[in-house]
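Handout, page 2. Input:
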Amino acid sequence: MVDGSSRMKETTPPRTTTSPDEGFDPVGIRWHFLSDEGRTWLEQFETGRAHVCPIKTAVRRWVYRFAPGIYVKQVRYQGLRALGKSLAGGNACREGANFQQLERRGIAVAEVLAYGSERHFGVLKRDVLITKEVAAEHSLWQFMQDVYPALEPQTKRRLASALADFVRQLHDRGVIQRDLHVDNLLVCQMDGDYRFVLLDAQRISLRKRSLSRTQRLLNLAVLLCNFWRLASTAQCLRFLRDYGLSWNGAQGRSHLYLIKRLALKLSRHSWDAHARRALGNNARFIAERRDGFTIHRTRRDDVDEMLGALLSDPDRLLDQGKTDGNRTIGAVQVKLDGPWTFLQGYRYQGWRSRLWNARQGGQARRVWLNLWSLRTRHVPVLEPLLCMDRQCFRLPERCYLVSEYVADARPLSSCWQDLDATQRRDALIHLGMELGRMHRFGGIHGQLTWNNLLLTFVDARPQITLVGLDAARMLPAAGPLRCQLDIRVFLHDLDDRDPDGSHRRLFLDVWKRWSR
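Output:
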């Protein structure tokens, strides 16, 4: 019998039965660690008694869930990457070894059953990690989305305190998790108390002593990047206080300022990188030239059909829309071989207008990129589906933008009178949160009239959608004065419907807390 806690060099012998799933095949793998439970499960897999459920299937990495409660991560390597990993070691094996070291340091992690690799003439081809499922209902991301908003304030404080204790335990024991986000943490609830389990140990560095203050602040900034949308500033401050940081005095305030600045810098880098994908060819977007148009669109079959219907004569579809200024030909609801969509057209009058818009590739392209920049920041805007731009001698001539259409939403100006006092209060609170987050992340709407705020209620909860973003801008940092100017038109419309000023005070109180 092999000791489950020991390392062993063992190669799985060839098998004669067919694997229940062709994606994972243990044949040829040299196991660097194999526990008794892992050996038993592999024998069941050999006899075809393991039922598979794919969790993630990518080009280089697969994650499977096998019954009963076994997860298998498999990573493949090719080309120069295989040569580099042959020297440095594979990702799955390194993660398995990290899990074992974390467990020895007293950190709650997934139980490792086996990990090993396959090499051909010394070159690494793939490596595999087998872990046991953790008995937990939610990841921290799912918990914050579904459960956290309905919790009592006292329960929220206990959750923040438990998370702070877990992160402080990591840092006190010399663990730096460079990928410390809410999808890599599981939430377990036992007897009213919360505990956390670390699921991903690939990008971990282990130190012989506890982390320095600078290392702690950097890692806390990485964690807080996940909570821009999920928690307010006051809740984040409560978490930092439970962690052990104090914001009293000049030193404490400098630490808070440093964490916030680092978190925003890391987040903006990630957000901008994801938004720029909308201008290229990748798994989600398509960039092409067709019939004289430069086209950016999402990679969906229905959008491909919309493009075919729009290329024939886009101006004909805009005839039923009304002109808006010198650039916008129209904005109209149309049906393009599928669901209802929102079509906008732009034109340019004179050389000055063309030269001004040529710097960023046209008005529709600029709005397309701004919309995706806001969506990566989880600001509620319409999903853009298609962007078309025609140029003459590299100067924009005509451009069009197609976005999704929200069927049940109504402008705030038309539905305000139909709302009762509770619904108005909930709508203003939700609106203050969304606009505050947008301004904190550097977004400027430019036309915050009540007609550009669509309101709908889902399960008695208000949902706001921002439209009319032709004048929107994305800034590295939006100053307080610019943000106040952005909401000036909204406050003017609110004052006309709020004689005693109570709604204005409520909105500004929420907006200030979420915009800082």
